[in-house]
Amino acid sequence: MFPEYINQLFYIVGEAVVLLAALVLILSIIVSMLVLYSFKTGNFFAARYMLLGIILLENVITSLFWIFRAEDCIVDDVGVRLRNYINNKKFLKVPYSMRFIFMPQCVRSTECPAKLTPDGIKCVNCGRCGVGEAKKYAEGLGYHFFIVPGSSFNKRIIKKYQPRAIVGVGCHMEIKEGLDLCHSYGIPARGVLLLKAGCVATTLDWEQFHETITEIE
After folding, report:
1. How far from chain centre, in Å, is Cα 68?
2. How many whole angstroms separate alpha carbon 44 and alpha carbon 78?
3. Is the dihedral of CA 119, 120, 126, 130 positive or negative?
4. Which of 5, 12, 48, 54 has the most neighbouring CB atoms within 10 Å?
5. CA-to-CA distance for 213 and 117, rounded, in angstroms?
6. Terminal Cα-to-Cα distance of the chain (whole angstroms)
7. How far apart are CA 62 and CA 211, in angstroms?
8. Tally of CA atoms within 13 A in the half-sphere of 76 that contains its CB
């Protein structure tokens, strides 16, 4: 038998754990409802607190979506939209000439003849995919356009050229990691999600991409 004060301590700790679990669950439900609201309407309520909730409670929120048979990719989608929304004002203040675009190599055609260089893959505008036209359009605005084979290239290019704003294209995980990387460097960024993810022959909504890079304050 434990002394009485030990039993009381266990009781207090047990109550605290139960209360904390209940608080986490309640907050997760609230954030989940806000995520669904934002996904359906495109509007955000208390955006920064909402994003913090998604970051801290992501595992619980995705579990709730799974339990109620909702697509948990909605959480990632809204998370990217939130980051874009929060970064928007600073991003728009940066002129085109100081904005960089990171395009993933997986968007290229499987027959792409472009070669890898220290600054990524150099597009030769062969016409086999939409990357060449996107690069021409973006560079016409003033952007610096890079086709990158991995996150290590992103870090290298950021350190080498020090962009003031970045547009990144990729899957949910790549965009989340990229936006977090940009945040660590203090660089406002926007993410554009692929329509179809994968290692090769991915697809992108080019119209959405053009709209994302064309905006200016």
Report:
1. 24
2. 9
3. negative
4. 54
5. 24
6. 71
7. 30
8. 15
User: Are the C-beta atoms of 196 and 203 separated by less than 8 Å?
Assistant: yes
- Contacts with 19 (C-beta within 8 Å, 6 or more apart), sequence order: none
Kindly report the CA angle at 91 between 80 and 151, in degrees rounded to 5?
55
Alpha-carbon dihedral of residues 167, 171, 173, 177, nearest 10 degrees?
-20
Q: Helix or strand or coil: residue 214?
A: helix
Record the pTM.
0.82
**Which pair of structure tokens corresponds to residue 12?**
């207090």
Rounded Cα distance between 213 and 138, Å, is 7
- Residue 39 tokens read as 């996904």
Is residue 163 a contact partner of residue 99, using CB atoms and an 8 Å limit? yes
Contact between residue 102 and residue 192 where contact means Cβ atoms under 8 Å apart: no
List residues bridging with 148 in a β-sheet: 104
Domain boundary assignment for the chain: 4-87, 93-214
Inter-residue contact 65 to 75 (CB < 8 Å): yes
CATH 1.10.10 fits 93-214, yes or no: no
